[in-house]
Amino acid sequence: MIVACVKVKPNYGPEYVNRLAAMVLRHTTLPYRFLCLTDNPKGVQCDCAPIGTDAPGWWAKLILFKPHPALAGQRVLFLDLDTVIVGNMDPLLAYQGDFAILRDFYRPTGYGSGIMGLAPGAAPQVWSNFIRKANGSGVMAEHYGDQWWIETQVPTADRWQDVCPGLIGSYKADKMADSPKGFAVCCFHGLPKPEHVNGWVAREWR
Prior knowledge:
By secondary structure, the chain is an alpha/beta fold. The chain contains seven helices and ten strands.
């Protein structure tokens, strides 16, 4: 099992990788290897591998669907860098299906790509069709973001909220400013980011 994150310019510094790796270590009992796919490993204190794409920002996540040499033959749990983990996350690592993704917190029929679980070789069309359209630029011009593209390519994915009920929440949508409200995993999307928030988030993240 690989727990993976993606760090590409210009969004996040190495502290986001290091703190995410530390939270995973604190909150799982299952065996795994933490891996950062990145275009700049400077300051990252865990195993790294070249990202293998120059796709910007969130689009770089699509490399997870390519036969990437660092992921070959391995089950992968992907976490966005701005994920905050406060409780046991073993159910995410224990997932044995083909492909799981978040149900978007604001679009119940849509996807949220902040957490994804992939069996080896899952949904290769996500990457191959992305590259086929003008080396990705065609898809990026026609779709708002990576998760909208994934929706078109894998319309029947498992949703984490069904696989692991009550485990994952949204800092904004679930109004977690005062507490994590029993969720083990807190997703940040848009603003604020964990570095901007005090209280329980600062204690766990920093």
